[in-house]
């Protein structure tokens, strides 16, 4: 393959690299008052261009640069979700930051750089590429968490995320060094070939440390401790971004590592994944019950949902991977819609409100917003006929087909417990005595995105199921 052909394969990453660099220079040397909005528009256009680039060699070009980078159906599926989540996180931001005068052009630029790192993560074919992508994504995320410098909670969120993220990176890097030391290679294919002859104790320890580092990135138990505080303290558009794009990238990275590099050690990592999945579902279900802040509740909801996604991975089959990818696609829509609704929670002075109790009486003051909230909560709870039910059905079906019937039964039982706190929000909206009404939202962008996401997770979303099954199935097939 020529150098030009290789560069076409990595075209999305080239667009993000050159685009983010150019926008950074524009931000440094321009003093236009609406620069933040202008840069945001250009950033969204770049993400759309990256998505369109996946229609060419970047979507199916295979391995390039000596196997460091893979462009296949799996990476394409993941990148589409990443770019869409990043674009919506940028579109959500202007109205939130404008009131505080903090809509700076650095926000969309940091989103682009984080998306660049996530692209390397899902396309990595080597542990070194994995680590580079992970750190690029994380460094931008630390700054995003503390983006509102004058807000104590935001600064605290950024510091906590940085300290615990550095610890997780160290754990991951130690695992990488162990695997390299005992296999003699950092290539996924080379690691798989070395482990095919049997798993040594050193390789097992390396596997455990690598999975521990990845569990932190997807906020799975017991490496979830940063999630509630960071989600609550970070600006709401940033929290929406953290709950979607990095989650997709980390789950996709974990899938590629486990089914590509660690495939011969499936029996070893399968036990770990089963424990982490059940622990995440249980803690996410129980810990969210006592929350009064809606962003903290959604943080525990994300932990809970990651547990369900891991059930598909635990199955260890192609159908399980396809189920997990479908689940993550549905989860992204539900989560973005939920945070778009949270953005509408503003008092009469336009200040953000995050207390769940403030939702009381919303069905009377803003019935459309109340209906959207109810759709997202019912869907996150997995209640039919909403699309969230279909995602859970897929992962449980894959687990049963793989002979993990007890895992599916326990997961279903725990999902019933988790439904309680979603239903509590709906009860507050429709049946509690009315609280002070929110200020009306006149944002066409936010209202339009809420309408689209709500329609997608409604029963109308089942019209997309054949397309989702086809694309997720092709993505999973690329790994087998």
From TrEMBL:
It comes from the Bacteria. GO terms for cellular component: endomembrane system; plasma membrane. One of its GO terms (molecular function) is NADH dehydrogenase (ubiquinone) activity. The keyword Transmembrane applies. GO terms for biological process: ATP synthesis coupled electron transport. The chain crosses the membrane at residues 6-27, 39-56, 68-93, 105-122, 159-184, 204-226, 271-290, 297-315, 321-343, 368-387, 399-423. It is a multi-pass membrane protein. Its EC number is 7.1.1.-. It is an enzyme of class 7 (translocase). Keywords: Cell membrane, Membrane, NAD, Quinone, Translocase, Transmembrane, Transmembrane helix, Transport, Ubiquinone. It is found in: Cell membrane; Endomembrane system; Membrane. Pfam families: Proton_antipo_M. Residues 124-417 form the NADH:quinone oxidoreductase/Mrp antiporter transmembrane domain. It catalyses: a quinone + NADH + 5 H(+)(in) = a quinol + NAD(+) + 4 H(+)(out). NDH-1 shuttles electrons from NADH, via FMN and iron-sulfur (Fe-S) centers, to quinones in the respiratory chain. The immediate electron acceptor for the enzyme in this species is believed to be ubiquinone. Couples the redox reaction to proton translocation (for every two electrons transferred, four hydrogen ions are translocated across the cytoplasmic membrane), and thus conserves the redox energy in a proton gradient. NDH-1 is composed of 14 different subunits. Subunits NuoA, H, J, K, L, M, N constitute the membrane sector of the complex. Belongs to the complex I subunit 2 family. This is NADH-quinone oxidoreductase subunit N. The gene is nuoN.
């Amino acid at each position: 393959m020529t150098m030009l052909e290789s560069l076409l394969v990595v075209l999305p990453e080239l667009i993000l690299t050159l685009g983010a660099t150019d926008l950074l220079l524009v931000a440094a040397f321009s003093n236009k008052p609406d620069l933040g909005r202008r840069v945001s528009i250009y950033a969204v256009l770049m993400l759309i261009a990256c998505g369109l680039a996946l229609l060419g060699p970047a979507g199916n070009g295979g391995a390039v640069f000596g196997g460091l980078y893979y462009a296949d159906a799996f990476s394409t599926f993941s990148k589409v979700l990443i770019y869409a989540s990043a674009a919506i996180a940028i579109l959500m931001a202007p109205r939130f930051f404008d009131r505080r005068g903090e809509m700076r052009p650095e926000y969309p630029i940091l989103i682009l750089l984080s998306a660049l790192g996530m692209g390397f993560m899902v396309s990595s074919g080597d542990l070194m590429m994995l680590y580079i992508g992970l750190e690029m994504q994380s460094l931008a995320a630390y700054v995003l968490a503390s983006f509102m410098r004058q807000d104590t909670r935001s600064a605290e969120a950024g510091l906590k995320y940085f300290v615990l993220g550095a610890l997780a990176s160290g754990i991951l890097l130690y695992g990488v060094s162990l695997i390299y030391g005992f296999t003699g290679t950092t290539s996924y294919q080379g690691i798989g070939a070395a482990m095919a002859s049997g798993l040594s104790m050193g390789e097992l320890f390396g596997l455990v440390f690598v999975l521990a580092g990845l569990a932190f990135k997807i906020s799975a138990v017991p490496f979830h401790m940063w999630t509630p505080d960071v989600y609550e303290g970070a600006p709401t558009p940033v929290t929406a971004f953290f709950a979607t794009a990095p989650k997709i990238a980390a789950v996709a990275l974990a899938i590629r590592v486990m089914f590509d590099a660690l495939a011969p050690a499936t029996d070893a990592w399968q036990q770990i994944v089963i424990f982490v999945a059940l622990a995440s579902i249980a803690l996410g279900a129980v810990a969210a019950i006592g929350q009064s802040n809606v962003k903290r509740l959604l943080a525990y909801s994300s932990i809970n949902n990651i547990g369900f996604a891991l059930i598909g991975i635990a199955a260890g089959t192609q159908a399980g991977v396809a189920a997990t990818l479908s689940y993550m696609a549905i989860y992204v829509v539900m989560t973005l819609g939920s945070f778009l609704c949270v953005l509408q929670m503003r008092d009469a002075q336009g200040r953000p409100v995050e207390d769940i109790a403030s939702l009381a009486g919303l069905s009377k003051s803003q019935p459309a917003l109340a209906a959207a909230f109810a759709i997202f909560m019912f869907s996150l709870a997995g209640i039919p006929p909403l699309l969230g039910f279909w995602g859970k059905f897929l992962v449980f079906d894959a687990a049963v087909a793989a002979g993990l019937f007890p895992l599916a039964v326990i997961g279903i039982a725990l999902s019933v417990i988790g439904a309680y706190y979603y239903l509590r929000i709906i009860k507050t909206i429709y049946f509690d005595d009315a609280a002070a009404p929110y200020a009306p939202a006149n944002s066409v962008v936010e209202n339009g995105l809420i309408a689209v996401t709500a329609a997608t997770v409604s029963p109308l979303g089942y019209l997309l199921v054949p397309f989702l099954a086809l694309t997720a199935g092709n993505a999973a097939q690329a790994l087998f």
